[in-house]
Design goal:
Low-confidence stretches: 8-26
Bound molecules: ligand LIBGGCMN
Order of helices and strands: HEEEHEEHEEHEEHHHEHHHH
Mean pLDDT: 92
Helix content: 40-55%
Strand order of the largest sheet: 1-2-3-4-6-8-10
Shape: globular
Strand content: 5-15%
Radius of gyration: 18 Å
């Protein structure tokens, strides 16, 4: 309830701000964790995640992301969105582990509902989505990129991308898996999911997790030129085609959202899974020291 009220407030405040800035010509709105700029080619917004240090998808970040998308969807002048990160070297570290560790079942259920919500919005968006992957992109970070229509990645071997859930002792849910299969094919997805593979850029390109690699300083300009090509296609035919390609996958979650929430909640609440997450978080800490 409290979150729904916050969401309404944010949406309202955001739309007032958006209107005022549009009049000034600034064409920019921001929540705390998501910045949206609509300068540049007509009809294109750049959405930047800014939830330092690693753009983990906390409940607040998910909510702000979903609201920003909703606003862009409602703005008929926007036809395409470039999704990128403001955190140096990190696209997104994926779902926030602290939302899935040491909390109560009601929190897990609320969190998962919001993860589903963002995924459904992104995956089924009528807008053209291009990701400019300018850093590490594990698990939920990869999920964000996979929702896009085209993925441009910085060719920096320090950055990796993939669904690595099995390395954490958790399991990518069926809709993550379905989207992976849709993108890289059954055999590659089967192998990568079981091994929790995090692909360096050259391998990500080879297997099809990303569509193009460019030097790091060219990621944004390339994303813009890709966007220009997609903008040249009439919206109605592109949108109908996208819907035809993606609807069955999205519907598969829509028809069992509640069961999926229950599944997640009981899985993540298990002592053994909490223990695995604890160990993983400790490993992240030790890496530093
Ligand atoms: C059978 C039924 C199944 C039903 C469904 C069941 C299960 C649910 C599946 C859930 C799906 C989950 C999806 C996910 O996205 S899980 C998250 C996966 N993410 C990762 O594995 C990334 C972990 N992080 C890293 O590898 C690195 O942090 C990095 C992103 C490569 C960045 O490295 P670096 O710049 O060296 O930063 P640090 O490692 O030092 O991290 C800085 C601080 O940030 C904290 N951190 C990192 N990642 C996360 C995260 N995902 N969530 C929360 N916090 C994170 C890290 O601990 C550091 O914190 P500190 O400063 O307090 O020590």
């Amino acid at each position: 309830m409290a979150l729904a009220a916050a969401r309404r407030l944010l949406l309202h405040a955001g739309s007032r701000l958006g209107r005022r800035e549009a009049v000034d010509g600034a064409r920019r709105f921001a929540n705390k964790r998501v910045l949206v700029e609509t300068e540049g080619p007509a009809g294109v917004a750049v959405m930047k995640l800014r939830n330092p240090p690693v753009n983990s998808l906390s409940l607040e970040c998910l909510t702000e992301f979903t609201i920003s998308l909703e606003k862009l969807e409602n703005d008929k002048s926007i036809r395409g969105v470039i999704l990128t990160s403001e955190c140096p070297g990190i696209f997104s570290a994926g779902l926030d582990l602290l939302e899935m560790y040491g909390r109560n079942p009601a929190h897990y259920a609320e969190y998962w509902k919001n993860v589903q919500e963002l995924w459904l919005r992104l995956y089924t968006s009528n807008m053209i989505l291009v990701s400019a992957i300018n850093g590490a992109s594990p698990a939920g970070g990869c999920l964000l990129a996979l929702c896009c229509d085209y993925r441009v990645m910085a060719d920096n071997p320090k950055y990796t991308i993939g669904l690595n859930e099995s390395l954490l002792g958790i399991v990518a849910p069926f809709w993550f898996k379905d989207m992976y299969v849709n993108t890289i094919g059954h055999r590659e997805a089967e192998r990568a999911l079981q091994l929790g593979t995090l692909f360096p850029p050259a391998e990500a390109l080879k297997v099809g997790v990303v569509d193009e690699l460019v030097p790091e300083d060219k990621v944004h300009s390339k994303a813009r030129s890709v966007m220009a090509k997609w903008l040249a296609i009439p919206d109605h035919s592109r949108q109908l085609t996208k819907n035809m390609m993606r609807k069955a996958t999205a519907d598969n979650l829509i028809k069992q959202r509640e069961a999926d929430i229950q599944n997640f909640t009981s899985f993540i609440s298990k002592d053994s899974i909490q223990k695995s997450l604890h160990m993983y978080l400790e490993k992240l800490k030790q890496k530093k020291g």
